[in-house]
Amino acid sequence: MYAITGITGKVGGAMARALLDGGERVRAVARNAQKLQPWAARGAELAIARMQDADALAEAFSGAQGVFILPPSNFDPAPGFQEAAEVVAAVSAALDRARPKRVVCLSSVGAQAVQTNNLSQRTLMEEALGRLDLPVAFLRPGWFMENFRGDIVSARDRGVIDSFLQPADRAIPMAATADVGELAAEMIRETWSGTRIVELEHEIRLAPVDVARIMSAHLGRPVAVREVPRDRWEDIFRASGMVNPLPRMRMLDGINEGWIDFESPPDKTVKGPTTLDTVLRRLFEDFT
């Protein structure tokens, strides 16, 4: 049996479907019982646990052959990443008590960066789980293609996308959430010892100008990219309700400056099959 946290999201959901379709037993772990009901209908066991509750997590992980850890995303963290530290402590304690045969943890491209940024939350988790006497694998995908969901309305209504990824023609590693989940399902059924890192991206690296080109094809009219000046970022993020935008800004700096990237060269990363065209088509369908 495999215990999956974050199962109500895209990555966890894709992983659970792959395992269930392969005849595996799945234990769905989440804090909201109502959101777990579709998984109960598919035959999954249910476990209610918050990611900050070590006792509830240990019970949810008990008896599992493998555990998938999907840390909560927080793009407006408190200074010092206090919330992430609480999750890291609870997850580490729970895994140490439950002692599954293996652990797969969703991390991120650039988790190895020493510069403090929003992805440092993933660095903290990697450091803590790496100290456990368990087989642990960190899955580091590139920039999620689904992140461009926020640009759909602007592209459709105004023919423009505002890009914080700069320069607009600079290609970066990207991955579709479906590929991330399916690879996680493969990894958790494998056997290894110690700690391993797996980096995932689509076979072609893409830039914001490629996003605009594909959106143009879907809409049948031009879509332009407008780079958002760096000196406007803080005001824009604070106006959207963020209290501590600096970690997010530094994450974007890291991608744009190249210090957030994979550790492996491109010929050593795992390649996901889902194209950006496929992902954007699905996103446009959500808005029709």
Describe the structure using short key phrases.
11 helices, eight-stranded parallel β-sheet, 41% helix, single chain, alpha/beta, two-stranded parallel ribbon, 288 residues
The value of Rg in angstroms is 19 Å
Fraction of residues in H or I helices = 40-55%
Write down the oligomeric state: single chain
Count of β-strands:
12
Structural class: alpha/beta
* Global shape: globular
Mean pLDDT: 97
Largest sheet: 8 strands, parallel
Which runs of at least 5 residues are low in confidence (pLDDT < 50)? none
Strand content: 15-25%
Number of helices: 11
H/E element string?
Answer: EHEHEHEHEHEEHEEHEHEHHEH
**Adjacency order of strands in the biggest sheet:** 3-2-1-4-5-6-10-12
First-residue to last-residue Cα separation: 39 Å
Structure, explained:
- This protein has 288 residues and is an alpha/beta fold.
- It is 41% helix and 18% strand.
- It is built from eleven helices and twelve strands.
- The strands form three sheets. It has an eight-stranded parallel sheet, sandwiched between helices. It has a two-stranded parallel sheet with strand order 7-9. Strands 8-11 form a two-stranded parallel ribbon.
- The chain is globular and about 55 Å long.
- The model has no long low-confidence stretch (mean pLDDT 97).
